[in-house]
Every structure is written in C-alpha cells, then in structure tokens.
Amino acid sequence: MAILLTTIVKGQTSEGYDQVSTFLHEAVRKSPGFILHCSYSSEDGWVVLEVWNSKAESDKFFSENVAPNLPRGIVPKRSYQELHSVVTPNI
Question: Which sequence spans correspond to the domains of the chain?
Fold first, then answer.
C-alpha cells in the first residue's frame, strides 16, 4: 500500500533545502518505490511531502541518502499515512 511521508524540518531555510536537494533529487528519482516529492516553507521551517510505494522503500532511501547528508543538529520529524488511492498521469 502506498504511503504519504510528511517530513517537518524545523529551522530549515529554502537555501538549506536547495543545497541538499541539488544531489538528492537525482537520487530519489532513481529510487525503487518513489512516486512524488514536493516541499514548501512553513512558519517553523520546511515541509517535505513524498509518496512512496511502501514505508520500507522510503526508510531505505532516507537512511542511505538523506540522513548521512543532514547538517549537524538537524533532526527531521517524519510521519506516515497509508493512502487509499494514488492517481498519476499515464506517461
């Protein structure tokens, strides 16, 4: 079942996000189970929304690619929601 991953990064800025995303966007596009990534600024920092085929695939990508590249002291708050449906364009 597909999941929605919501990640809240307190204190993150658009500049900080852009710096990390430069190399992570290419890696996530190639990751098994990845469907969608989007982000936006919030009052507290930065919010990232991702849709994955499974929590396990999302966790694997995070532990192998994101966690090792986080600046010291940055601890994202991650939460998951099982999705009832996901509709994508036919490409």
Answer: 3-82
Of all residues in the chain, what percent are helix, strand and coil, respectively (each to 5)?
A: 35, 35, 35
- CA–CA dist 78, 42 (Å, integer): 15
Q: What is the pLDDT of residues 38-78, one digit of tens each?
A: 999 999 899 999 999 999 999 999 999 999 988 788 889 99
Q: Which two tokens stand for residue 80?
A: 């998951």
Could you tell me the pTM of the whole model? Answer: 0.90
Q: Indicate the residue type of 91.
A: I
48's CB contacts (< 8 A; 6+ apart) are 5, 6, 7, 9, 37, 38, 39, 76
CATH topology assigned to domain 3-82: Alpha-Beta Plaits (3.30.70)
